[in-house]
Amino acid sequence: MVRDRKYPRHRGLIVGNYCHDVLLRDDIVVAETLGGAVSFISAVFDGVLVCHNSISKVGWDFAYSTHHEPIVVPDSKTTLFHAHFSSEIDGDGHQDRILKRVCACDPIWPSDLPESRFNFGMAVGVGGEILPQTLEKMLELCETVSVDIQALIRDFDAIDGTVKLVDLKESGFYHLLPQIGFIKASGEETSSLDIEEVRKLCCVVVTNGKHGCTVYWQDEEAQIGPFPTNQVDPTGAGDSFLAGFVAGLVQGLPVPDAALLGNLFGSLAVGQIGVPKFDLRLFQRVKEEVQRRKMQCNSYSEMKAEDSKLMKVPGFEQFHASLSAAKMISTCPVQECQWDLSISPPETVDQPKLFSSPVFEETVQTIDGGKP
């Protein structure tokens, strides 16, 4: 692996396609929005000023304005997903969602990546656009790479495009695990991997919705609690969490604290439809709290190298409370923020290779199994 530290600090490489999301409730279209993990991640990074490049492909029909220009493929259409919601509510107060890929843009090839060095990378494909050789190239270019497991194990029904999950060992990516910083997976996605095996190779973060998450690393485990919120649209919750989490890490926060920051942005994302709109006052408050917490953690730098990488530095609960207070700042127009899919639509310290995660993960109904 290449480890050249002559590149700008905190510069990241985000790889994954933009897409078009259509939300349907009981087969009736209720919203159409910009989608793709890169759009949710960029919304957070741009606000907290984490410098990054994004590599994303779209088709000739791409109709959105973005801060980070994608690669346009003239003879292809933009990746399109239909998210089918039911009006029925489960025991956790959430609606089931069946996700279908209607069409897919071209994959991202290693040759599409810039010949540069990056402090961190994020492989966040949603429609099967990241190939094993592309991830391998990212691992050469980036100091640490974090991966959303959906980029590795999603497959799609040949007839209607329904999302399926394949076993991680059969995905073509398994041999790269020892080089990956961490893998984030939802509780449902854990059916596709053996946590006890994978945790020996890289850090595994399993999110469990309103119950938070568990971080697994070697023989260590850490439980991180979430931020309660009123869920409106679960799409992009995991992406926003991942952005907040990685932003915390590159700012120098310990793993549990970075997880709390991820929780914050994940909980904010589910309160809106599509890519969330954040209030500038929120970003300013969060940056102040992160800086304050970083200084506090630095005072405990005498912790020995063999101490637990998942240890909660004193003041952890206060940091959680401070982020909870920051969350109270209004982040979007009332009409957009308060609409719920269950009702009628509106009128118009040193952490080599170690990341973590919790929070409100999007609940996607999939078809489990091996290779289709």
TrEMBL record:
InterPro entries: Carboh/pur_kinase_PfkB_CS, PfkB_Carbo_kinase, PfkB_dom, Ribokinase-like
Signal sequence extent: none
Record-annotated Carbohydrate kinase PfkB domain positions: 203-275
Record flagged with keyword Nucleus: no
Pfam families cross-referenced by the UniProt entry: PfkB (PF00294)
Coiled coil feature spans: none
GO biological process, one term: myo-inositol hexakisphosphate biosynthetic process
MF terms in GO: kinase activity
Keywords annotated in UniProt: Kinase, Transferase
Keyword Transferase: yes
Family, as annotated: Belongs to the carbohydrate kinase PfkB family.
Protein name: Carbohydrate kinase PfkB domain-containing protein
Organism in which the protein naturally occurs: Cannabis sativa (Hemp)
